[in-house]
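#dry-run=false #mode=assembly
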Amino acid sequence: MKFVDEYRKKDLILSIAEKLKAISTKELVLMEVCGGHTMAIHRFGLHSLLPSNIHLISGPGCPVCVSGQHFIDTAMAYSKLPGVIITTYGDLIRVPGSYTSLEKERANGSDIRIVYSVLESLEIAKNNPDKKVVFLGIGFETTAPATAAAILQAKKENIPNFFVLSAHKVMPPVMKALVEEGVKIDGFIAPGHVSAITGTAIFDELASVCGLGVVVSGFEPVDMMQAILMLVIQIESGKQRVEVQYQRVVHPEGNKTAQRMMEEVFELRDDQWRGLGMIPKSGLKIREELKAFDAAIQFNVEVPASTEPKGCICGQILRGLKTPIDCPLFGKKCTPSNPVGACMVSGEGTCATYYKYRV
Amino acid sequence: MKNSEDKIMLGHGSGGQLMHQLIEEVFIRHFDNPILKEQTDAAILTTGSEQIAFTTDSFVIDPLFFPGGNIGKLSVCGTVNDLAVSGAEPLYLSVSMIIEEGFPIKDLETIVSSLAAEAKNAGVLIVTGDTKVVNKGKCDKLFINTAGIGRIKKENLPISKALNILPGDVIIINGTIGDHGMAVMNARESFNFKTTVESDCASLNHLIRNLLDNSTVKFMRDPTRGGVASVLNELVQKIKLGIEIEEAALPIDRGVKAMCEVLGFDPLHIANEGKVLIVASETEGLKILEQLKTHELGKNSAIIGRVVSDFPGKVVLKNETGGRRIIDTLSGDQLPRIC
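#status=ok
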């Protein structure tokens, strides 16, 4: 398959592995921030190809995993309102809230539909003018522009029954928060598709102020091995900076049109990250001018205080402090068919990835 | 089930872990008997000195018409294949229809004529049936149930029981995986992939009979819902050995591969309707592979892996760079990735 096969070439992967072994001398901790990277590392068994002094830890880059429990509980409360259709990306459907999950509420009769694009949700709103259609907006700078585009489209076409519950988040503040909290990280394998939208300047501070290596990586095994090699070269030579491995997709300036749309629709707010707590200016709120589309403003529901599951160490896993194997619930009480914490639900969650791929 | 509040979710019908749990905790618990407990594709019954295989299957596919077939053809293939992979020769079928008020008779006729054509092709007779009509909105257009009976020779009895499977035995499949699931998904959802992917929906009884007459098969199963992953996981649980699949050996259509890449699906979890997984010793396996390749429904057959003594109870995929990962059964609905 074009654009895939050439990035999965065995010889190329193994030759990068050889090079890594030859030049890497220091004990290094590299964090892959994005859930897509975590999956790729395990799917292609990249751990087994790295020298033992290079340690990969997973970061907080699975949007489903970091969405606060309150968001899920709010969505559930909306789903019980008469005349409401909830539309969501598939990953959210099984996430356990404090009391129930969307999947269970669907079985209880709520109208909850999986969409593959927010624009499908807009279509559902057009086709059901007597219903209120709520889209659960989740994800980082990758999915936020699409949500922004849908809101702008709804405004343009004057669709009064389309609403978004935004749990959109942005990446740089959480990366910085982890470093400031003292998590030992020597370099970041930075998210490829976030950077395609934002450009690379968002990581400058991590390199210049915190002195960390940052390489924006693609998602195929050759991409990731090359990104790791670039980080090792940076750190071994003491020249930490922001580099782009994923050049076929990421332009240093990013996608200006997408940035403009995000800017027009959203403003930054302090936001709750599941397991990590409140992080300043890390979430995206729909602007006042567009509040007609903001479900959080247009729907008045009582959401009981959220409770985190007992014994779950998702928070520490999301900080890269522990691995799923350290969790007493992992593989026992908490499995993909019966997830306790969010990291087990999403296909990109660290726990689900470990469960699935660790032989 | 765990508590009285629990309800049936879509995941309970996906062929994965939730469904197995439901079968164990509700159906087997109430129906418990030694024949059912075997949990084979078809029940093996003894009448006098003869053994017969008996099976049933319901079809609720949406859309009713899809590239490569329709619900009529599918409801013959599904039941015929359940009998054939049990080592039986399919003979008779029943067909029951649950039809929604307002369903076009023209469409019904198209579906019934496909049913008849596929029955003729498979060499089975439809000998009994039932028709129910329900109020509009009380079922989605048309549901079909078929049941089937076949004769099974004594020497083929062990096939569904997965006896005598040893490390070193090979796993064979008769062609590309995931075609049915992706063809249906593309027809149903609004992806608009420009692809020629068609369902592999086909009756396998002639292909299988040819094999059974000429070689020794240790185990067979059709990887329908839950895909190849589901069948192999059930098998490793039973035989207490492991299975190692070679990623590079898996026959996958380019279109299916591309759709799976885009949507984040694993082709090993996607449904097939004209495929059979076969376990045989290495020597017999090579013979079987040659025979399969001479048949229209086996042109793309391949040995995809082996039974191993490492990691008992697990199915492991070895990729080209030597990395290994577990192939688990699905735990609920197949979920797409979101970023």
